[in-house]
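Q: What changes when 6-O-phosphono-beta-D-glucopyranose is included in the input?
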Amino acid sequence: MSAGDQLTISCQSAVPKVLPHMPSTRLDTAENPLREGLSQRPAPQPCTLVIFGATGDLTHRKLIPALYNLYADGNLPPALTVVGFARKEKSDDQFRAELKETTAKFSRQKINEELWTHFAASIHYHQTEFGHTAGYTALAKKLDQWDIENGTHGNRLFYLAIAPDQFAIVLENLRTSGLSATKPGSWARVIVEKPFGTDLASAQHLNALVQGSFPESGTYRIDHYLGKETAQNIMVLRFANALFESAWNSRYIHHVQITASEILGVEGRAGYYDRAGALRDMVQNHLLQLLCLTAMEPPIDLDADSIRDEKVKVLRSLRPIIGNEVAVRAIRAQYGAGSINGKRVVAYRDEEGVNAESKTETFVALHISIDNWRWSGVPFFIRVGKRLPKPGTEIAIHFKNVPQVLFNKGSELLDENVLVIRIQPDEGVSLRMSAKLPGSSVRIEPVKMDFHYGTSFGKATPEAYERLLMDAMSGDATLFARRDEVEEAWRFIDSIREFWDRSGDEPLVYSAGTWGPSEADRLIQRFGTNWRRL
Ligand code: BG6
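A: The predicted holo structure follows.
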């Protein structure tokens, strides 16, 4: 997304009264409750979606393709108006043409001309400066008019796809123009993109800012990992299968590894990334969310707050990593030059836009302890990095080995059971077990039971943003981070970050295309185990 986009109002093209409704391709939830998500959700409600930062990357790569796919699958509300709010001068038609080009490139489904034409007719462009109060007043008038024409009932969803330093001015204008106020029988909500602060203090400041204009119940903080189908499946796997949950504790589990590996580098985002680093960019949000879903207690029901209450308890149980403990439990490193898939890549410090003396980490490995009844003594390891050899995000539950009697008393121990939840790619779940090799002698080999989403359900997995946009239009905040979750996560991250900043040490260096520095291997080897090879 680009910081500093602005807006105008231009509405040259005619808008259809209502989006032509596509037949729903969804399965009957009565027959297939699990395939439809964690709960029976309310339907998305007619509304106007105003995207701030409409000419930016996020709008083009994620938001509009997600809306188009929802439309093609019959999952949009019957009336939806999309308004792009940005600074650059352009007409509705120009905006639509640009969006069509990028949607064709990034959409999960191919563009169908007829569908696109219907869908695009609901999109408008509003040009104005973010700080230009009259632009908001003009927008308010247009929205009122479109509400009448399109049947959107005064419901407004504001999407802040802008740099955080522009939040204040936009939120303030939404409040003073009355746009953030709810009218009887309608709602106003805001979706806030990450990064949600850079530390606890800035997150608290941001939260206060947002809540000056929107209540917590109308605030939807995006963590796109929560929208991934496989992340949602963690709860189903745990709480819909007696087999797993009964062994999901320190009695049976030896340790847990959570890995998010990317082959990509900073990809033109150096301005942001060089100030953030992997700990803020990935661990504070995505990785800690996955850890929460893996470690939390069963919620009392499936509503948003019950689930979020349990996640917050996990975050509060994380043993703080403080002072010299940081050197032992937190490894940070930066990629040097190397090669990936036979292609040479430059060192992080040589990437365009990166400070040549940057100390920003592109790799983090952590040993985390959860001080609660269920997890006491079970180490959780997190590993995240850019320019690693293979892309993949997974959670691996390593069970304790069977007693060293019977089949497990030779010189070589059996491989322990490992349950792997593959978040991406090749979404699925596998279980490693021991089995006897056919023959007269007793030879035991590890075998794998493997479930793949693609083949088992024969249904394309929706993009995270599809699910999240739909939920925000439905008023379901389950897959969005609550204020206290974000703040607790920062509290945990801050002590590590502060130690690193204070030490002034250079990060370790790993060659691009390798699995990080050997110190990260030693971190886990102290527990008699190794990182899994993806
Ligand atoms: C973003 C980070 O939140 O997540 C990026 O800012 C990272 O640095 C991306 O590449 C990874 O998301 P995904 O869905 O590709 O795993």
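Observations recorded in class: The chain has two domains: 6-193, 227-401+479-525.
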